[in-house]
Amino acid sequence: MSLVEAQNIVLYRGAHLAVGASSFTIPRGKITAVIGPNGSGKTTVLQAIAGILSPSAGQIMVLGEPVKDVKHDISFVMQSVVFPTGTPITVKDVVSMGRYAQRGWFGMFRAQDRAAINYAMQTMNITDLKSRHLEELSGGQRQRVYVAQGIAQGHEILVLDEPMTGLDLKSRRIIDEVIHAEVEEHGHSVVLTTHDLDEAAAADHVILMDGKVVASGSPEEVLTRVNLEQAYGLGSLHEPADVNGTTVVELPECTTDGDADDWDEQPAAYGGRSGRYDAF
Ligand SMILES: Nc1ncnc2c1ncn2[C@@H]1O[C@H](COP(=O)(O)OP(=O)(O)OP(=O)(O)O)[C@@H](O)[C@H]1O
Known about the structure:
Layout: E1 4-13, E2 16-26, E3 31-35, H1 42-49, E4 57-62, E5 65-66, E6 74-77, H2 91-97, H3 111-123, H4 139-153, E7 157-160, H5 169-184, E8 189-194, H6 197-202, E9 205-209, E10 213-217, H7 219-222, H8 225-232, E11 241-243, E12 246-250, E13 276-278
Parallel strand pairs: 3-8, 3-9, 6-7, 7-8
Antiparallel strand pairs: 1-2, 1-4, 4-5, 9-10, 11-12, 12-13
Bound molecules: adenosine-5'-triphosphate.
Keywords: ATP-binding, Nucleotide-binding, Transport
Region (Disordered): 255-280
GO molecular function: ATP binding
């Protein structure tokens, strides 16, 4: 059974058509990367998978059921979680929130809840920060806390919106290891968004967005020059270069606040990283 089957879904954010009619499947027990330019609909698709946003047309099934019936199997970690400034909330409080739905009678944490909270803090390497207030943390540390909250939920499906963006190498590695452990050790499925072609190329399955799903399948099937040019704009890719026998495509730099065609001419960084990946 597929993890997700979407047939001709159309997604609006308010009055704005965010994702035009799209069909795709996502395999179960794998890592799926959703990639595409700014504003291409990645977060919107994640929200539909997590049951936060309903399609205005078409249908989306998760684990063979209407998504509203399996919401309790899904952990959704948002791109940025905003707590009002001055909220006296600690790292442990935030991670513990991941267990609120599973708590026992009278809202008491049971041994398994405490174990899940401690496991999540350990795997995300934030145990030594547990008594710190959230607003005392760096952006990268905070992001690890939010991912830990998702891990603590222990659900079969972990949906992560840009978990790696803006993180240093160490934090990226920690999150990468946790994502692989979720799939390989716990048999869970991970769906994440990224701006990094290397990350997408390393996933089991890729969905390429540009206001709709442009392509979905294995990285080899999806991350082709033709598809990437369609999503990121014709001429946006520089001629492939041969680097030590590997064909490498460089993406031009994209402004972070712009839309898909808002390219800078400079062939340099993309999504804060090298912007180079092995072309298929
Ligand atoms: N709350 C909202 N109300 C109206 N339109 C929205 C809202 N949120 C997003 N949009 C629009 O929906 C479209 C898809 O946005 P979405 O956040 O899914 O893109 P994205 O690919 O995740 O972008 P990014 O890479 O910048 O995070 C964009 O055109 C965006 O402007």
